[in-house]
Amino acid sequence: MSTGVSTFVIRWINFLTLLVAVGVVGFGVWISTHHDGCRKSLTLPVLGLGALIFLISIIGFLGALKNNSILLWMYLIMLCLILLGILVFTVLAFIITNNSSGHDVVGLKFKEYQLHDYSKWFLKELNNTHNWKHLQSCLVKADDCSNLSKKYKTIKQYKSAKLTPIEAGCCRPPSQCGYPPVNASYYDLSFHPLSSNKDCKLYKNSKAIKCYNCDSCKAGVAQYMKTEWRVVAIFNVVLFVVLFVIYLVGCCARRNAASSRLKS
After folding, report:
1. Is the distance from CB of 15 to CB of 62 less than 8 angstroms?
2. Distances from the Cα of 54 to the Cαs of 25, 60, 69, 72, 246, in angstroms?
3. Considering only CA atoms, which of 21, 84, 8 is closest in space to residue 57?
4. Tell me: the pLDDT tens digits for 34-87?
5. Which pLDDT belongs to residue 217?
6. Do the Cβ atoms of 162 and 174 come closer than 8 Å?
7. Dihedral angle at the C-alpha atoms of 130, 132, 134, 139, nearest 10 degrees?
């Protein structure tokens, strides 16, 4: 690739990523002003990612603009570290999420999930009291459980619904308990549970309690996280390929910049 082409490509790629970085930082600022504590926890990671993209883009843009081999070296080193980070994270994400797809329940369209099916990492994070209290408060604020009775007016509709893992695990007692549903948000707890599963005694019809302390709820969250992580991992594979191509173009630009400097 010629000097002019490689530097032109790197220059415009990094100009575009500069705009992306500004957008990411703006999103982080928006989150920081949001009153939802669950979303606020994402503020620092989002701002950090935006700042990192901005810094690397500035170095790459200036390096290509001035045909400076030193700046391009810095750009390539930082880009290489990001590629390694993405690769490691993606491999770990696939390893951690490589288990459990839920259990079918007779008479229901949705699946139930069991905590012991998930990786040790998920178990450690979800059984951490501090982590779970934070997640619990988010689940209560989301109010998904109370909204079920509005979405499904009859028991027949409720039983034929495809509940999300969190709705299936946190908003209702496990099916093995045998509690008959009165509606989508309320169960008749006067019946003696058919199972010794501790979740049967932990479930309450209260809006603030439901099954938020249950292992089934933690399993539902684990399944949700697994799905999200898989999406992120697949996105990272695409991102890795794109960045690797940019890295190769950057190598050409750096080599050409060094050659130009020697000739001059």
Report:
1. no
2. 9, 10, 19, 15, 16
3. 21
4. 655 565 666 777 788 788 888 888 888 888 787 777 888 888 888 888 889 889
5. 96
6. no
7. -170
Report DSSP letters for 162-194, one per residue.
---HHHHHHSS--GGG-PPEEETTEE-TTSPPS
Residues paired with residue 103 on neighbouring β-strands, in sequence order? 112
- CB-based contact 148:181 (threshold 8 Å): no
CA nearest to 61, candidates 47, 74, 46, 48: 74
Type and span of the H or E element at 202: helix 199-202
How far is it, in rounded angstroms, from Cα 78 to Cα 172?
48
The encoded tokens of residue 5 equal 């082409």
Q: Token match 């012991």: residue?
A: 116
**Where do we find the tokens 């199972």?**
195
Dig out the tokens for 248 from the structure. Answer: 């190769």
Q: Using CA atoms, how far apart are residues 50 and 54, in angstroms rounded to an integer?
A: 6
Query: Residue type for 88, please?
Result: V
Query: Tokens representing 221?
Result: 């969250």
CB 10 within 8 A of CB 63: yes
| Helix-strand-coil split of the chain, %, nearest 5 | 70, 5, 25
* Local structure of residue 104 (DSSP, 8 states): E
Spatial separation of the C-alpha atoms in residues 134 and 43, rounded to whole Å: 16
Strand partners, 166: none
What's the DSSP call for residue 143? T
DSSP-derived 3-state class of residue 134 = helix
Q: Is the pTM of this model over 0.90?
A: no
Please state, in angstroms and rounded to a whole number, the distance separating the CA atoms of residues 66 and 70.
Answer: 10
